[in-house]
Amino acid sequence: MSEQEIQYTAKDLAASLEVTTSTLRRWAIALESAHYPFKRNSKGQRIYTEKDLTTLDELKRLLAEKRTFADAIQQLTGYDKLTEQPAKELEDPVLASNESEKVDSQVLNADELEKIVSHAVKKAVKKEREKLFKQLKKQMKKEMEKLKKKKA
């Protein structure tokens, strides 16, 4: 960081973005979990720069466009939290958002996502139930054979 680079406190940056400090903190934690590097002072507090202001302003814009929080974070950082791997190699988070605007992306609404998850859960439950029934049948067969041997 150069000597003349502008630095912001959380309070100042939150005011610039017109969000609360708790919202800023939540956004910063999410970005850090996706490997976005914030600089810190000797007390461990985040020091925000112009680059951070631009990134956070872009996050606010994406959220205003009704993007999901996770998608917006992934778009800015290029890091896919579900796979815990970089979604693609990107150097600049703002370039990442501009690049993704060019690509048609499928965004699921809550109902579609609920249907997909519900179907997957039902399928998994059915498979597990069948597995348990097979085990139970096998165990019952063994027990029946033991009973027959005792009677004989």
Automatic annotation (TrEMBL):
What's one Pfam family the UniProt record gives for this protein?
MerR_1
Instruction: Give the domain of life.
Output: Bacteria
Q: Which residues form a coiled coil?
A: 122-150
The record's Gene Ontology biological-process terms are: regulation of DNA-templated transcription
Cite the HTH merR-type domain residue spans from the record. 8-73
List, in alphabetical order, the Gene Ontology terms for molecular function in this entry. Answer: DNA binding
Q: Which InterPro entries match?
A: DNA-bd_dom_put_sf, MerR-type_HTH_dom
Q: Which UniProt keywords apply?
A: Coiled coil, DNA-binding
Protein name, please?
A: DNA-binding transcriptional regulator, MerR family
